[in-house]
Amino acid sequence: MSETAPSTGDPIEARCTKCRKNTSHTIIIMGEEGPEKVQCGTCDRQHKYRPPTAPRKPATRKPVDPRIAERKEWEELRPSLDSAAARDYSMDGEYRVNNLINHPLFGLGLVQRIAGARKVDVLFEDGRKTMRCK
């Protein structure tokens, strides 16, 4: 099967300057090198021939594991934390942001935010935990 050279009036795939996408066009003027001027089949605009562009590969973002971000945040904060100033954790205790607590299971932690009535978010070495409080 042999391919014939395109000629005036033949359909061709091209990049439309008005539609800004690859569409079907009709060749209006042929030059020595190939099509010079085409007409878009969608918007009927005549323009210089531009070869179709390759479809863009969608950007893929690797989801960030929150545990990795929390671990990094902990490693940055740890040198500035004084474990002697930490209070022992109690569900009946009252805590404020930036209070240090010492939990029997999770170890040293930093209160990061008040998460609602009777709850605080605490950053431990193992990650962020929501803890009950008064």
UniProtKB/TrEMBL annotation:
Organism superkingdom? Bacteria
Sequence segments annotated as region (Disordered): 47-68
Name by which UniProt lists this protein:
Uncharacterized protein
